[in-house]
Amino acid sequence: MKKLKFLAFLMMGIVACFGLTSCGDDDDDEPGDESSVVGTWEVKYYDDEEGCGNITETVEFKADGSCSTTHRCEDPYEPVVKSKGTYVVLGDPEDGCYIRMRLMFDDEPGVYETVQMYVKRQGNKLIMYNEYGDTLTFTRK
Questions:
Q1: Contact 109, 40 (CB under 8 A)
Q2: What are the E-state strand segments in 6-123?
Q3: Tens digits of per-residue pLDDT, 61-74?
C-alpha cells in the first residue's frame, strides 16, 4: 500500500500541472540540465490514513543518471520501501519541469515502473506537485 501511495504521489505531478506550466519549449522530451537536481532530497510529513504517523521520503539523484527512493514510516513494524532506477530531467528545474524515473522496487525484483512528476527547484528546495493541488517540499540533505 505504501509503495502504491508513493508511486501515486510521484506520478501525480504530470496530471496536475500538465496544463499549468511548460518547461520552456514545446519539445518536453528533450533532456534538460540534471546537475541542479543531483543530490539527496528529503521530506518529512505526517500521514494518519495508513496509521504510519510520521513519514520520511528520500529521493537521491546521481550525476550518472541513476536514482533511488526510500519511504520510511515512524512505525517500526512497517517495512521500509526502497527503489532504484534511472531518471531524466525534461526541461529546466529552476523554471519548473518534469522528471521521468524508471524504478524497480525491492519487493518486486525485475519489475520496472515509470513515473513522471512535475518539479520546481528553489535554492535548496525541490517542490513536487500532485494531481490534487498538494505539494511536497523536499530539502537538499
A1: no
A2: 39-47, 53-61, 66-73, 81-90, 97-105, 112-122
A3: 999 999 999 999 98
pTM over 0.85: no
- Helix-strand-coil percent breakdown of the chain, rounded to 5? 15, 50, 40
Q: Tens digits of per-residue pLDDT, 72-86?
A: 998 888 899 999 999
Query: For residue 26, what are the domain limits?
Result: 2-140
Whole-angstrom distance, CA of residue 54 vs CA of residue 73: 6
CA atoms within 13 A on the CB side of 130: 11
Q: What is the CATH number of the domain that holds 39?
A: 2.40.128
Domain count along the chain: 1
